[in-house]
Amino acid sequence: MVKQQRAARTREALVQAAATAFDCVGYEAASLAQVSKSAGISMGALTFHFPTKDQLAEAVQARGACVTRSAAEKITAEQGRPLRSAIDLTLEVARLLDEDVAVRAAARLTRECPQAATPWTSVWLPAIEALLCRASTDELRPGADPQTVLTLTTHLITGTESYIRRCATLPEQRESAQDQLERVWRVVLPGISRNNAQLD
Amino acid sequence: MVKQQRAARTREALVQAAATAFDCVGYEAASLAQVSKSAGISMGALTFHFPTKDQLAEAVQARGACVTRSAAEKITAEQGRPLRSAIDLTLEVARLLDEDVAVRAAARLTRECPQAATPWTSVWLPAIEALLCRASTDELRPGADPQTVLTLTTHLITGTESYIRRCATLPEQRESAQDQLERVWRVVLPGISRNNAQLD
């Protein structure tokens, strides 16, 4: 049992160190030797747990996907108004991108390794699509079709991730990604909402 | 004179081949040997014209910046309503990203080599900022401050570039980036415009 716990802790440390590496320099440039060094775990143990770089990247993507999926499930279970829930989910995704290195690494790896088993977008984008379809009759103004609002939403998340990466060297001097995205939604919402809805 | 023309043609072919390489695989992974091969120009001639990879990347960024700057200057000179001009400029940037490999490479290199002499964003983003500031009193609705609309605009261009890259393997099967962005602006515009402006 103690042995199993130790193995789980080793895997955990490796996934964390790998997330930092993939987030910072991407799949190709990430060095397994550097991951092993920064996790304080030997290369032998690394290759025992993750025989290939692909398997390590897969574990990081799974971690980032799991965190994001939990957030999506929590928000979609809340039974609020669908448009508000869709916006709340984007704000939570922005917060996770800002604060969780595995989420940020998963977002990057999904672009760089499109053959991944669990693309990061697949755990939140369909939830937003479903919410926007539910919102369309009562909440979206005529002309604001759900597919175009979904495209807008995707662009806003992509832009948010890019903002975080641009400011990576001075994170304490900038507005949080969630605050910035909320500011953008306040401006955009009157254009897409039928009822002149406001964010609280 | 003939010799100068030949040198100019050689540089032109090298910049074009390098733009394709930087656009596809990024700065780090781009191979000078591959650039030389696909341009049909010897490695000796490549290093004569561009002694370092940095100098070749700089030339590609300068090309992409030059094309984009021309578009920005043309649109800002047109004396239309500032908000409409700002949107027109984003649509032109989307078209250039879709159709001009040097523009796409410049966008990518600006992210990957932030110390570049001419960051690609610096040739169009200040023009949009100036237009939005001019629009703010007459055209933007109260609450839609120019800085937030600028953040929105930046996210839309980032999202547009990401869309082009996601669909790089099947460009003929997708909506053009310009059409997609125009569709998004039609939905967003009523939220930011004071006069309930519509795109024609």
From TrEMBL, chains A, B:
It comes from the Bacteria. Residues 31-50 bind DNA. Residues 8-68 form the HTH tetR-type domain. Keywords: DNA-binding, Transcription, Transcription regulation. InterPro entries: DNA-bd_HTH_TetR-type_CS (IPR023772), Homeodomain-like_sf (IPR009057), HTH-type_TetR-like_transc_reg (IPR050109), HTH_TetR (IPR001647), Tet_transcr_reg_TetR-rel_C_sf (IPR036271). This is TetR family transcriptional regulator. It comes from Streptomyces monticola. The lineage of its organism: Bacteria, Bacillati, Actinomycetota, Actinomycetes, Kitasatosporales.
